[in-house]
Amino acid sequence: MTQRLLEIDADLTKRLRIAERPGPLRMLASILAHSGDSWFWLLGMILLWMLGSEPWRSMAQMLVVAILLSALLVMIIKFSVRRSRPEGNWGSIYRNTDPHSFPSGHAVRAVLLAVMAIAFMPPWLAIVLVVWAPLVALARVAMGVHYLSDVLVGMALGAALGLGFLYVL
Q1: Distance (Å, whole) CA 141 – CA 138
Q2: Do 34 and 136 contact (CB within 8 A), yes or no?
Q3: Catalytic site includes residue 106
Q4: Across residues 139-150, what is the average pLDDT?
Q5: pTM, rounded to two decimals
Q6: In the chain, pLDDT over 70 holds for what percent of residues?
Q7: How confident is the model over 12-51, as pLDDT tens digits?
Q8: Is 55's pLDDT higher than 90?
Q9: Which residue has the higher pLDDT, 65 or 90?
């Protein structure tokens, strides 16, 4: 049963993959796939904390803690499961620094940020992040660095963590 599910996952992943097809859709997927990078978001939160007004500074601090705690949980799961990334050439930085694909940290982070945005950010920004989050997750599959199940579980984990952080706060 598990083997059959993995085969279905690999087949669906292959159908969504566009990493080897040049064109505007591939370029868009590449940009979206990178837009969920942790360094990008952590740098953004540090700048927001340094330059923003008090409400934005508090939000930035909260999001940095949420991003770091979610990254720790993702790494624990990745090194417990040890699922290899799909074969491919795109995303060598990810392949070299983190050879494990399950779950997708980008999907976790994107959905976590979207959930928290609904509660703490202006409505226009929350809408942008809610639309952006699943696009990041799908772009990771399209660019060949994750299986579809990696991002689906990552999105569910991100939603659960986001709701958990909201409950605690």
Answers
A1: 5
A2: no
A3: yes
A4: 94
A5: 0.89
A6: 99
A7: 999 989 888 889 999 999 999 989 888 888 888 888 888 8
A8: no
A9: 65
Question: From the candidates 78, 106, 109, 140, which is the catalytic residue?
Answer: 106
With a CB cutoff of 8 Å and minimum separation 6, the contacts of 44 are: none
Cα 62 from chain centroid? 18
Range 106-129 burial, b when 16+ CB lie within 10 A, else e: bbbbbbbbbbbbeebbeeeebeeb
Position 20: which residue type? E
Q: Which two tokens stand for residue 105?
A: 């940290």
Token digits of residue 71: 């990254």
90: closest CA among 145, 133, 34?
145
**Region of residue 88 (left: phi > 0; alpha: psi -120 to 50; beta: else):** left
Question: What is the residue whose two structure tokens read 């624990």?
Answer: 76
Choosing from 146, 148, 161, 165, the catalytic residue is 146
Copy the structure tokens of residue 90.
């795109």
